[in-house]
Design goal:
The protein is mainly beta. The chain has 2 domains: 307 residues, Beta Barrel (Porin), CATH 2.40.160.40; 123 residues, 2-Layer Sandwich (60s Ribosomal Protein L30, Chain: A). The protein contains 7 helices and 20 strands. Strands 1-2-3-4-5-8-9-10-11-12-13-14-15-16 form a 14-stranded antiparallel β-barrel. A 4-stranded mixed β-sheet has the order 17-20-18-19. Strand 1 and strand 2 form a beta hairpin. It starts with a helix and ends with a strand.
Length: 572
């Protein structure tokens, strides 16, 4: 049969790219985000922009290409995003363009270091090919050759189609001692819409099942290992990938990584990349070793990707909107109540004179937020803070602004400068030397005890431990296991113990980031106790971030002592 070779290759390869409509990327960031809508909850910054490009089977005339761009936002427990992609090979093969909307919601579970996310994705897919450029056996005449004017004999109902697609997914993230497990399951094409091009075709997009798991394992200082597993199935087509990636931390925000994986019975894959501040750049290269290698001459695939994260919290990213030079025309007979040149049916502020370029509203402080939506209309502010400057934000919702709150991320009492008083002795936890024991001010917040009473209390009624951490890390080093096991032994011997776990950091970086880091460190110790059958009802965790240093932050020794979790147990 003298059908055009390119079309034959496409027919063979379409099964390995899961029926040709879904984008395919290997690098884990784009693979997980593309196939699992719940994974939007994994993004580290409130805003992320991702790009992906993959070209494979480059030795054939028209290599198969995937191109993708995505933008997503995360707001507390909810994340949402938009994805655009295109894939195909050449003008004659099946080309697919997809536009997708994704939404995810995450909720913390019983463990402080464990949460669950659910997600949904809706896509509109356009599939098309150019039948006129294909050559069929019926168009060949012996001795004469190809004649495009002859009937192809193919009964195409259409060559372009629009297909809706719906997907759902679930994702779990959990810390088990020093190891972080992330895993997910998703189902795509739940509606199984009709997708045939022939007049009497009953073809439908097949249900696609995708699952993955990643184990993030600390090895030595600055080095971690990611164990990777991916599985996809669509009809009889299967993809199984096993691999690993090493990560080496250059500094607090910079990291390089590289690894290797094997796509079972298909390809060996190498990848490398760089994480620089809030951006990640990666490249992967795989060599095909499947039976198709005879057709595509072992053609390899190369993939490039980039992710840009940004918080959107800095005022300077909100530039004043420039006034338009061409005003909206006022039609005869249309009402303009405030006489600002914008007719009422187009005016979002119809009874208050405004600017044409702001749809009839005002933006007095030029921060890009219209006055009627701006909580601080006369102060240049931030969208994340309802138009107010970030210094007027109240992060912990305790009624005290962050700029005057001594504990801006932990809800506290006004009389204590916005800080908590855990033991309710009238002394702020930041100033209390014994924040978990009711004491007196004259003794720096500690209870007054005689020498014998104090010795008895320390030996029989209480136990403590300190766990220190590497810079920007929250996993527990094995050398601290013995100290924590001593605490566990004490708790199991007693019946009414109360365990207080407080997380701390040095002063490197943003204070909000440090609060979250202190919280992660507390949660790591909490999870260690859970794994050793300590009831969560016995424990209370808190993060002080950088606000309660044990030593000076002016040198490396002091900073190392401040990167800690303090565990204090009292038998009630």
């Amino acid at each position: 049969m003298k059908i055009k070779i390119l079309f034959i290759v496409w027919l063979i390869l379409s099964s390995t790219v899961l029926i040709g409509q879904d984008p395919y990327f290997f690098v884990s960031e784009n693979k997980v985000r593309g196939e699992h809508p719940a994974s939007l909850s994994l993004q580290e910054k409130p805003n992320e922009f991702r790009l992906g490009y993959r070209s494979q089977w480059g030795t054939i005339a028209e290599p198969y290409r995937n191109i993708m761009a995505a933008f997503s936002q995360s707001r507390s427990a909810v994340a949402y995003g938009l994805t655009v992609y295109q894939n195909g090979a050449g003008k004659t093969s099946l080309q697919t363009t997809g536009l997708g909307l994704k939404l995810s919601y995450k909720k913390r579970l019983s463990g402080h270091s464990e949460w669950l996310a659910i997600g949904a994705a809706g896509y509109l897919l356009q599939r098309r090919f150019q039948a006129a450029l294909l050559q069929f056996e019926s168009q060949y005449i012996e001795g004469t050759g190809f004649n495009a004017s002859l009937d192809s004999g193919e009964n195409f109902l259409r060559t372009t189609q629009l297909i809706p697609s719906l997907g759902v997914g679930v994702l779990l993230k959990k810390n088990i001692a020093a190891i972080t497990f992330t895993g997910g399951l998703s189902l795509s094409h739940l509606l199984r819409p009709a997708s045939g091009f022939y007049a009497f075709s009953e073809e439908r997009l097949p249900l696609k099942i995708s699952t993955f798991s990643v184990l993030h394992i600390p090895l030595i200082d600055k080095v971690t290992l990611d164990g990777l597993f991916f599985y996809n199935q669509s009809r009889v087509a299967q993809e199984i990938v096993l691999g690993g990636r090493f990560n080496y931390r250059l500094s607090k925000q910079n990291e390089v990584f590289g690894g290797a994986s094997y796509r079972i019975k298909d390809a060996f894959i190498l990848e490398a990349g760089l994480k620089y501040k809030n951006s990640t750049f990666h490249i992967s290269y795989d060599t095909n070793n499947s039976p198709l290698s005879k057709i595509i001459s072992s053609g390899a695939a190369i993939e490039l990707g980039a992710t840009f994260g940004f918080s959107g919290r800095k005022n300077e990213i909100l530039q004043p909107i420039e006034e338009l030079t061409i005003p909206l025309e006022k039609k005869n007979g249309e009402l303009d109540s405030d006489k600002d040149g914008v007719i009422d049916k187009l005016d979002e502020c119809p009874f208050m004179p405004g600017k044409v370029y702001l749809n009839g509203c005002l933006d007095t402080d030029k921060d890009g937020i219209w006055d009627h939506l701006d909580a601080c209309p006369n102060l240049y502010g931030d969208r994340l803070n309802q138009g107010c400057p970030m210094k007027y934000q109240d992060s912990d919702k305790d009624g005290i602004r962050d700029d005057i709150d001594k504990c801006p991320y932990v809800s506290g009492l006004p009389e204590l400068g916005g800080c908590m008083d855990t033991d309710q002795d009238g002394i702020s936890d930041l100033e209390d030397y014994c924040p978990f024991l009711k004491g007196v001010k004259s003794n720096n917040g500690c209870p007054e005890m005689g020498k014998r009473e104090h010795q008895y209390f320390m030996k029989e009624r209480s136990v403590s431990a300190i766990v220190e951490f590497d810079t920007d890390k929250s996993y527990i080093k094995p050398r601290f296991y013995a100290d924590l096991d001593e605490v566990i032994g004490f708790v199991k011997r007693k019946n009414r113990s109360k365990i207080y776990i407080s997380g701390h950091t040095d002063d490197e970086g943003d204070s909000l980031y440090n609060y979250e880091l202190g919280k992660k460190r507390s949660e790591a110790v909490f999870e260690y106790f859970i794994q050793n059958n300590i009831s969560p009802q016995m424990m209370k965790i808190v993060s002080y971030g950088e606000h309660k240093p044990k030593e000076t932050n002016s040198n490396n020794f002091g900073k190392a002592r401040n990167r800690r979790v303090e565990v204090f147990v009292v038998d009630e």
